[in-house]
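Sharing a chain and its predicted structure for anyone who wants a worked example. Both blocks are below, sequence first, tokens second.
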Amino acid sequence: MRITEIRVHGVADKGPETILDRPIVARVAGDDNAGFYRPRPGYGAAADRNGVTLEAYRWSRLTGGTATRTFSLVLLLPFMLSNIAVWMLPVTGRGGHAARALCRLLAATMTAMYVLSTVGVSVDLIAWQCAAYPRCLEGRRELSWLGDVPPGQRLALLAIPPIIAIVLIWRLGARTWQLPEDSDHAPGVGADRLDAPAFWDTRSLLRRLRSVHVAVALGTLDVTLLLVLAPHDATVPGWLLLAADVSLLAGAVVLLCRPAIERRGEQDQRSSRTIRWVAVALTALTLGYALLPRPPWTAEGMMPGYGMLVAGLFAGQVVLLALLGLVVVVQRRSLPRPLFLLAGLGAPVLITVAIGLGVAYSSGLTYGLAEYLDRGSSPTPARPLPPGAPPLSPPIAYRWVTLGFTLAVLLVAVTALLVPRLRRHRRRREAEELVRRDYPEASQAAPERVRAVRDAIVRARLTDRLGGLLATAYVVLALLTLAAAGLSVIGPGPGALALRLGGEPLARPVIFVTDLGALLIGLFATVLAVMGLVAYRSGAIRLVGVLWELATFWPRAAHPLAPPCYVERAVPELTRRIGQLTADGNAVVLSGQSHGSVLAAVTILQLPDHCRRRVALLTYGAPLGNRYRRIFPAYVSDEMLREVGSRLAWRWINLWRYTDAVGGAVFVPFVDGTDDPAARVDRRVRDPRGLLIPPTDTVPPPVQGHRFTPDDDFHAAIGELAERLERVDD
């Protein structure tokens, strides 16, 4: 019987040549974005030492690979993180509706934050504040014409850039990797289980979310403009428009909370389309209202209502986060034991990070432009303005955020320094015992060599101990966020409050830390952008590419502006390829490395019965058990993993190492005795293979860690699975 091994790479692959360990390969199926490769005839053996035909599936270009695409993903990072959070909830189905609704609401606040940041730059700083001061316009031909335009018309004209930004995100939300051949005629809204064919098909839900988010974006823009115009005019049309836009936002909130948004149904599709077109019409009316001629009036200080909107949004996010945390803690009780520390709690943690990044982007952009426009004369309680300087003032909430960002950086730095030192001696002692137990020759090896292997095990196990520290850090950051939200709503900025409490001796260091935070935020955003541009050109910072590939595994179900899910194409391609090979009389060993093991396991659940009986699974460096089970407990559970094994009649081998910080055992903590078939899946391999220099080499074997290359253990596992497949046909 012919047997084909399909190797599915992990994150940040180095090409099909490296995956197959052959110098020249040829694509036999797929395209440049995702394809199947085999060794080109005449340039290396087409089969391995077991006679198994080699084939590689490369999917990484679905998630990155070009500078433009990766750069855009950096900008979409807050949206992406808010989307992943919904998959970290502990409960699926009807029981998890409240938590999913809260996640969708928090995702909508990210869109509102995006709009408010563009409004703050274009409308508040330029159209309202800068245009009112000759010193700000002096020598700037691109802005000087604004001085002769009335304030209302300036607001309407400078509202165009935020509208362009909204159109841009509308277009970005329409991207998909799904092929027309891989979907039904009726668009789907996803499913609750990974083995459901509709799990990756969220087209209908995505369309509804796009419409609602566009309504939220346009409604936020309209409310910002009308909070200036309606109180100034004090006329019925202005107040009616403001009431209509507030009602529009309320309607968007209702749609996001309705269970119907997650179900098939034309009625809810019509509702989302209706609210989108209502938002477009109200925006047109708002712009027309702003362009109306008015008696002369003067724009002074910050745009009325803008600071209140930013602070109110920030406070609303904190309230929603608190509710989500409460719901998740209650739902977490339904998880099976043993219960991991962070299991189910990843959603509020990740959304907190997403909000922090979003506010960091917003405040960094606002402070950067304000610094440029006011020519370095930012007003503070301890630093008065020079004569004639424009008092460009970002919202007070941003001042608190910059202060909080500095404190967060200090917290992260202290944690990074202290964590490796906590109970370091005990961890080293335990690791050294493992080394001496695994390697009888340890007494003959150099002490430096033993310590190197011991330290590799300690570093790998450190990630398992981060749960408590992350939970503590989250509580501290949540308290800081709550305090910042409350203070931003009350009114005083950090400098003004420090001046009131302790005078200039306290105000000056607080202002310095706040300014430092603004600088760090701008530097942080710049570094992320540069890393996004060169992530696939430099191996030193491939971590950026790794993040995208891990995050875009999950479909868009909370935020429509997250990057498209590559699995919506990868899984149908793998199932189709396996179906073709088995129909031609081949058996298939699906071999998944690192994150590729997750993709392989999901593919097994999607295969039809007549294909699965001729398929076996090999995973290595797999994060299924020690990572995904903790982070995504509702979807990657012990039940789901056992379902993978049972559908393959337990033709599954998982290779893992003590030195691997990412991968690990799948079933070891959950095995019910030696009769449990899951007990035969996990196989630990030694890393390194030995402590001494082999007779045929000049250096000792290296510590591989998470890197897996086809070695003796790998080929032995492939040979064993091939034998099991041959017995199936006997």
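Comments welcome. The CA atoms of residues 317 and 421 lie 35 Å apart.
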